[in-house]
Amino acid sequence: MSRKIEIFDTTLRDGEQVPGCQLSTDEKVVIARKLEELGVDIIEGGFPISSPGDFLSVVEISKAVKTGVCALTRSKKEDIDVAAEALHHAKRGRIHTGIGSSDIHIKHKFNSTREKVMEQAVWAVSYAKKKGVEVEFFAEDAGRADLAFLAQLVEAVIDAGADVVNVPDTTGYCLPHLYGRRIQYLFENVKNIDKTTISVHCHNDLGMATANTIAGLMSGARQAEVTINGIGERAGNTSLEEVAMVLKTHKDLNLHTNIKSEMLYELSTLVSEMMRMPVQPNKAIVGANAFAHSSGIHQDGFLKNSENYEIINPADVGVPSSSIILTARSGRAALKHRLELLGYQPNKSELDQLYGNFLILADEKKTIVDDDLIVLVANTPILVTHK
Ligand SMILES: [Zn+2]
Predict the structure, then answer these.
(1) 113 and 186, same structural domain?
(2) How close is the Cα of 72 to the center of ligand 1, in Å?
(3) pLDDT digits (tens, 9 = 90+) for 149-190
(4) pTM flag (> 0.85)
(5) Which domain holds residue 325?
(6) What is the separation of C-alpha 15 from the centre of its chain, rounded to a whole number of angstroms?
(7) For residue 377, what are the contacts with CB-CB under 8 A and spacing of at least 6?
(8) 171 C-alpha vs ligand 1 centroid, how far in Å?
(9) Is residue 384 a part of any domain in this protein?
């Protein structure tokens, strides 16, 4: 039977850490409402103690949506107090608290020891539990942590009541099979692991974020932490739309989400516009060229049967249709297809004549749009049009 994966969206927290992309509280509420409509299970709204703006955003998002709302904290009393206050109106609130788990972080960030980190982690989870909200613990830099220590830490915070344990690859260091094995190791070595939900949170420094997330889910994690368009610190977080469509496309994984995939393109555009952060044209799923076919061989194959070159129906992600980009590399089939859409029905010799003129124009103009075709037809005297 297919298992449900919880989608934890951190566009408004980790995603919003992108320099120059800060949003107002009103803008965050607009995005949060859309995320709820999209079907995400929990929205991380901010890091309340970090600024009055973040505090207010968590308050307003909590009022605006019925879905879960999460607030980030360090493992400090004041952070947890402020987060709990910000979540006061949440229908389902969650505190996301944690501490570094790799020796690099323990020594060089906290100037601490494994024992002290463990103690503080347990204290923070127990303290957050008293606030009457769900508690998620993050073991920062778990991707580089000593595995045996990580397992002890996870076991201890589950005993302290952690409802969810996040095993982040904070630095984007892991390879998919090793990250998957890390999660598998926890399932094999943490005896109370069935009392929690394991969550995966990956970064894209080596371009592995989605692959690592999927590897973690295949190893038993049941929550994925993602952002729209994969935005986030440095090279970004795992992209929500990629994870949703990997699971939808590969039904054999027996994992599913509640994401309404037909809204993905709309959300991508909304976040891109509000954050003034363009989506790269070749971005998987939502990039401008994700369903555009340019080479002649591909266009011909695509026009015979879209499945020849498309594994996703564009309508499934809310893109109205695939596009055939006419360039000097396009063949007669693509030109004929576009002419027919414009109402022209050239016969073979007419098409030959048009195609010759088309290639000359395409060499000059690179991309040919519909207006160019109309002019091309008008300037090709032997053509009998049937418009
Ligand atoms: Zn992160």
Answers:
(1) yes
(2) 11
(3) 999 999 999 999 999 999 999 999 999 999 999 999 999 999
(4) yes
(5) 292-378
(6) 10
(7) 339, 344, 354, 383, 385
(8) 8
(9) no
